[in-house]
Amino acid sequence: MKKRRADLLKKHNSKIVLADTLESEAMVDLAMKANDIFLKLKKTAGVSLDFKDADEMLMLWNLVLVKSSQTLEQISQKIDMKYDEPFTITLAREKLEK
Question: Is 2 a member of any domain?
């Protein structure tokens, strides 16, 4: 296991994710990249990055998350599988609706 992943597992909000498919592994990889990017974005907002620009980037990411969730829901319906939208996606959707 890479040192970075081992360090991440020590954090209180870390999660172990089983990725049995290339598609889910790609999502896990994106999640790790997003974590790094959005940590830096939130640290630089108001310093080297305008708050408005940072907020716009966060809203665009929320849109990506909501659209991804909608796509997964459509796929699950086609294969007769129940899809419950994750709470974090519901929060992202609510931010977009404000």
Answer: no
* Position 53 in a domain: yes
49 - beta bridge partners?
Answer: 45
**Could you give the dihedral angle defined by the CA atoms of residues 12, 87, 60 and 23, in that order, rounded to the nearest 10 degrees?**
80
Q: Is-contact 66 89, C-beta < 8 A?
A: yes
Which residue range forms the structural domain that includes residue 82?
Answer: 20-97
- pLDDT of 47-76, one tens digit each? 888 898 989 999 999 999 999 999 999 999
64 domain residue, yes or no: yes
45 beta partners: 49
Considering the entire predicted model, what is its pTM? 0.80
Q: Cβ contacts of residue 73 below 8 Å, gap of 6+?
A: 83, 85
Give which of 32, 96, 24, 33 is closest to 65, Cα–Cα.
96
